[in-house]
């Protein structure tokens, strides 16, 4: 088969590789029908994720068709159309039993395209198939559910649920990339009063409006703290989500939150940020962090199949799977191509 293989920082190839086999009775083999590229893949290619080693097939978001299962797999079988989640779960450990699949103690968590070969390939082995694959409801297209593999549950669980968005809340989302946009889309499920998207890129802010933001602040030309205060009687937002992952944006979030409010950090940080306790101690705020568990995936699948969520608006570019090298170039150059998500279909 062909696969997108990592060969160290800055080096990837679409190359031939042997087909995956069932290594454990809990494995399934999935033919990849539709996949996408993630910001995490770009981090890996920059060398930011040293646990990814030479020879690893990248990718952790896909929709495919089951072509084989190990003897212990009960819930999916040959021919089933499935969503491959970015998080694998043993289903048996203490964390999995609490629905915290990201912290699985038996070799689950984020492993696809990280510690085991991923899904940017013609075929993939999916460990713990019973707890890591979700049957796609009839009549739903691959693209309608593809983003439920990672960005939708991330924005929803780590942004909206951790931030406990409530009816009437002002919700500020700092960073209108794929995950910030996913938070904007799913925050609407809770009837907030106003969603404010904050980013430095005008085209991303425009997309944020299309996906449900009520107001936007371009922090390359406007002071976001000042602007948000104007909108909220000088108080700030009840819920502020950090969806960038740098110290400046985290610190901005703690400036934007109103007394009694919540800061939900979604961004992946590589450097320490300053926590200004000298001003925050008196504000009664809550700060949360998290890695997506994908425990909300069944709920999100139901919302898609019942027509309450349409994530296809994240797609900006479409390619054939074998054009993946070009797709990487387009996705990595988002400042010029305005790419949010690229869809690769086999
Ligand atoms: Zn991803
Ligand atoms: Zn587990």
Strand % is 15-25%
Q: Helical region count?
A: 13
Bound molecules: zinc ion
Order of helices and strands: EEEHEEHEHEHHEHEHEHEHEHEHEHHE
Give the structural class: alpha/beta
Q: Main beta sheet: strand number and arrangement?
A: 7 strands, mixed
Note poorly predicted spans: none
Q: What is the radius of gyration computed over CA atoms, rounded to a whole number of angstroms?
A: 20 Å
Euclidean distance between termini CA atoms: 12 Å
Shape: globular
Let me know the number of strands.
15
How would you state the average pLDDT, rounded?
A: 97
Share of helix among residues?
25-40%
Characterize this entry briefly.
With 346 residues, this protein is α/β, with parallel strands linked by helices. Helix content is 27%, strand content 24%. It is globular and about 60 Å long.
Structural overview:
The protein is of the alpha/beta class and 346 residues long. Helices cover 27% and strands 24% of the residues. It contains 13 helices and 15 strands. Strands 3, 4, 5, 6, 7, 14 and 15 form a 7-stranded mixed β-sheet that branches. A 6-stranded parallel β-sheet has the order 10-9-8-11-12-13, sandwiched between helices. Helix 5 (151-161) packs across helix 6 (178-187). The relative contact order is 0.15. The mean pLDDT is 97. Bound molecules: zinc ion (2 copies).
